[in-house]
Amino acid sequence: MDHCSKSLREVNSPFDCLLFDLDDTLYSSTIGIAAAVKRNIEDFLVEKCGFPKDKASSLRIELFRTYGSTLAGLRALGYDIGADDYHSFVHGSLPYEVIKADLQLRNLLRSINQRKLIFTNSDRNHAIKVLEKLGLHDCFDQIICFETINPNLSISSRLDEFPVVLKPSIDAMKIALNVANIDPRRTLFLDDNDRNIAAGKSVGLRTALVGKVMKSKEADYALESILNLRQVIPEIWIMNGTDGGNHQIKRTRSEIMDSVLPATPVGA
Ligand SMILES: [Mg+2]
C-alpha cells in the first residue's frame, strides 16, 4: 500500500449508513407536535378505554416506560385495540401545520452520500406526513416504521399472538437491522431518546443522541440539534468517492486536521 492510498483509507468515513429517528429528532420537540400526541393519547385512554381523566397522564407515562408505547401496553394488558384505530386517533388531529419546511436540514441531508433511512415507532402515514411537511420526503432511501417492525399485527387472531414491537426493544432494533440489511458497526443511529440510543448501542450501532448537550452513557455523540451534524460528526462527509467526492475530500481533510487530532470524538 502506498502512502497516498493509505492516507485516503485513513480518512474514509466510518459510516456506510445513517439511521434517523423521526419525531423530536428531525424537528424540535418544542413546536407542539409532541405535546399534542400526549394529549391525544390521554384522550384515547379516557374516551376509548374508559380510564378516569385524572389518571390518564400517569397511565400514559407508565405504559410508555413499561411497554414502549401506550398501544403496546394496552394490548399487553388485554385491551383489543387495533393499531390503525389507535394511530388514526392519536395522529389524525395533530397540528401538522406547525411543522415547517426545513431547507437547511434538507441541504444537509442531501450533502450526505451514504444511505439514509428513517427508523421510527410511528406509523407510515404519520412518517410520510411529517417528512412532506419538513420538505424531506425525497431525502431517504427507506422508511422503517411501525408497520415494518410489526408486519403480522393486522392478521393476528389473539392479542398475545404478536406483541407490539417498538424501540427500544432489542427485537425492534434487530428487525430494523435485518430489514435495512445494514452493518451496525458502520451505521450511525440518531435518536432523541436515550433508551433507544442504549438499545442501539447494544446491537452494535454507533450512536448519536439528538436534542441534548450531554452524551448519555451509550451515546458516542451528542447533538443539541440535528442541524449541528456537520460540526459534531464531520467524519460523515469523508468520502473517497468520485465526482463531488474530490471536493469533499479536500474540505473534510482540513476539517479532520482540526477535529480528529485531539483524539476524542468531537461532541464528547
Ligand atoms: Mg423520537
Automatic annotation (TrEMBL):
Entries under Pfam families matching the protein: Hydrolase
Domain of life: Eukaryota
Xref: InterPro entries: HAD-like_sf (IPR036412), HAD-SF_hydro_IA (IPR006439), HAD_sf (IPR023214), Pyr-5-nucltdase (IPR010237)
SUPFAM superfamilies the record matches: HAD-like
Gene3D superfamilies in the record: 1.10.150.450, HAD superfamily/HAD-like
NCBIfam families from the UniProt entry: HAD-SF-IA-v3, Pyr-5-nucltdase
UniProt name for this protein: Uncharacterized protein
